[in-house]
Amino acid sequence: MIKKTPILLSLVLCVACNVETPPKVTGPPQDVSGQAPGQEQLEKTLIHNAKIYTMDVGFSTADAILFDSSGRIHNVGGEEAMLEAFPDAMHIDLRGKTIIPGLIDSHAHLYGLALSLSQAQLRDTASKEEVIQRLREQESHLSEGDWLLGRGWDQNDWPVKEFPSRADLDSAFPGRPVWLRRIDGHAGWANSVALAMADQDLSGDWQPRGGFIYRDAQGQASGVLVDGAMELVEKAVPAVSPKLLQASLGLALQQMVSLGLTGVHDMGVDQSVVELYQQRIDAGQFPTRAYTFTDGAGKTLDWLCSNGTYEDASGRLYMRATKLYIDGAMGSRGAALLADYSDDSGNSGLLFMPAADLEAKIDKAMACGFQVGIHAIGDRGNRVTLDALEAALKRHPENPGRHRVEHSQILTAEDIPRFETLDVIAAMQPTHATSDMYWVEDRLGAERVLYAYAWRSLLDSGARLALGSDFPVEQVNPMLGIHAAVTRQDTKGWPPGGWYPDEKLSREEAVRGFTLDAAYAAFMEKSVGSLESGKRADFIVLEQNVFEIEASEIANIRVLQTWLDGELVYSYP
Ligand SMILES: [Zn+2]
Questions:
Q1: What distance in angstroms lies between residue 112's CA and the mean position of ligand 1's atoms?
Q2: What separation in Å is there between the alpha carbon of 113 and the centre of ligand 1?
Q3: What confidence score (pLDDT) does residue 450 get?
Q4: Distance from the CA of 383 to the center of ligand 1, in angstroms?
Q5: Which of 2, 28, 29, 108 is 20 to 30 A distant from 355 in Cα terms?
Q6: Is the predicted pLDDT of residue 167 greater than 50, yes or no?
Q7: How far is the centre of ligand 1, averaged over its atoms, from the C-alpha of 167 (Å)?
Q8: Ligand 1 centre from 88 Cα, in Å?
């Protein structure tokens, strides 16, 4: 999966090609005088004629970057001086393209993405033929005997809007069980092999409780099972095989790096997932950095507490944080609000646990020296979380801090300044706002919505934002997050001017939330998050300049190359 140097060579050979005028160095001059002793034998690469946004604290720019085969950045600065000082480095002319630090998704589910990729994605298929085509692609990752699973089909998207049948699948997949869940999860579509693996004969005229079996004129199950009938087949579906899981994780990682993500804060994983990642790291197949959070304060935290925080020498896997939950989500009215939902009187949502239990879990994690990230969506969920953190911080002055509220979605005017006061990071996902904006005001009313997804208010109060996507709940592409943060619009430009536009971020703030501040939120700001001498050479090459392109086009920016530790781990074909 790790591509080596073909594109690099083509760029080197192209030094004499049509070259755009190099941009001016506007950043402070940096030391280009030499190198640390003992590093003379390292291979050096000098990328020049680039528009480099270092994302350092001063937001400086440059047009050349030098790094070596140890994966560390030597210098970032002016092209002329660097070309002169390092004539022996391998030179790559970037022809005016943009470089920014590798992006870091500060709240996502890498393992969840892998699980979803272990199934075929059938959403938005235009026909049954397209379903078969996607299934064939998925089958190429399977071993003999694996079930071919998929989800997301909707017959309303097809020319003939009728339920499909087992015969549609049988000719393409005669020897392997196929089971495909409908988009709403309320029906499944099986081939004959899968139907035959149900634990009872599906033919006849009987129906299961709470479900329905579609049958043909001969009384044979025709392939679609509804609600309570689905489990007749689902009971036979085995757990994802380790081999398929590894293949799916490979796809998930490849998707990440192809979209410019060199880091992810991976929420809620257990020991087996850490071991899965470790296997890939040992095999040299983990082209990103995962900063993982435990799944609560249970077994995984116990394991880590007794062994100390987990840190792989490669710098690609860390575990020193705990993920907790206090409430649910807005869509299902599970988020805990201080007053009733505006569209559901008598319902103010639910806390998952009493405040005292949350405090006990925070205590346990802090006593191990861990950082905590608490999922809080509603204004009550956030209030209880901030109260619990405030109390726990007093009891654990030795804890290194940087605790986080994951989502920080609905706040009150009084609670916004507490993030800064308590030095708590708001870990937020800009695309949640643009996904929810169509209906969330109905839930909250005109008053409370003013303190929802309040990125700007939080920043202005002095709080630090770490931005992310929450993939696979939202799409993986971080450019969608930057676009949403800057425009508060969907990718079609709705609503004009942006949804509650006072809360928009500038491009610099949005990119910082996906780089240096995301690194800070994982205690990694000294090694990644900006392009500065001594840091790891994690950076991406963009086809368009994220700081200059039309805001509406940010979501379409293409990543041309992704570099991790000074190694090219992705290049656009
Ligand atoms: Zn999440």
A1: 10
A2: 11
A3: 97
A4: 19
A5: 108
A6: yes
A7: 39
A8: 47
When pLDDT is cut at 50, 70 and 90, the band that residue 192 belongs to is very high
Q: How far is the CA of 403 from the centre of ligand 1 (A)?
A: 16
- Measured between alpha carbons, how far apart are the two ends of the chain, in Å? 13
Length of the chain: 573
Task: Tell me, in angstroms, the distance from the centre of ligand 1 to residue 267's CA.
Answer: 6
Exposure string over 452-476, b if 16+ CB within 10 A, otherwise e: bbbbbbbbebebbbbbbbbbbbbbb
**Ligand 1 geometric centre to CA of 538 (Å):** 25
Question: CA 409 → CA 39, 223, 376, 415, distances in Å?
Answer: 48, 42, 7, 12
Mean pLDDT, residues 527-542: 98
Q: How far, in Å, from the CA of 16 to the mean position of ligand 1?
A: 48
CA distance 455 to 451: 9
| Other CB atoms within 10 A of residue 431 CB | 26
Full-model pTM: 0.85
Distance 169 CA to ligand 1 centre (A): 35
**Hey, CA dihedral for 522, 525, 530, 534, is it positive or negative?**
negative
pLDDT in tens, 294-349: 999 999 999 998 887 889 999 999 999 999 999 998 888 899 999 999 999 999 99
Phi, psi angles (nearest 5°) of residue 221: -55, 130
Mean pLDDT of 502-524: 98
Amino acid at 310: Y
Question: Residue 81, CB half-sphere, CA atoms under 13 Å: how many?
Answer: 15
Residue 353 CA, chain-centre distance (Å), reads 27
Which of left, alpha, beta for 177 (phi over 0: left; psi -120 to 50: alpha)? beta
Mapping DSSP onto H, E and C, the string for 196-250 reads HCCCCCCCCCCCCCCEEEEECCCCCEEEEEEECCHHHHHCCCCCCCHHHHHHHHH
Distance from C-alpha of 273 to C-alpha of 539, rounded to nearest angstrom: 26
Q: Which two structure tokens, joined as six digits, stand for 272?
A: 């087996």
Rounded distance from Cα 415 to ligand 1 centre (Å): 22
* Cβ partners under 8 Å of residue 176, min gap 6: 139, 142, 145, 146, 147, 148, 193
Tell how far the Cα of 431 is from the centroid of ligand 1, in angstroms: 12
- Note whether 552 and 484 are within 8 A (CB): no
**Ligand 1: centre distance to CA 387 (Å):** 22
Distance 470 CA to ligand 1 centre (A): 5
Q: How far apart are CA 60 and CA 30, in angstroms?
A: 11
Query: 341: Cβ–Cβ under 8 A, 6 or more apart, which residues?
Result: 333, 347, 348, 349, 443, 444
Q: Tell me how far the alpha carbon of residue 411 is from its chain's centroid.
A: 23
Q: Residue 148 C-alpha to ligand 1 middle, in angstroms?
A: 27
3-state secondary structure of 518: helix
Block residue for tokens 């006593």: 367
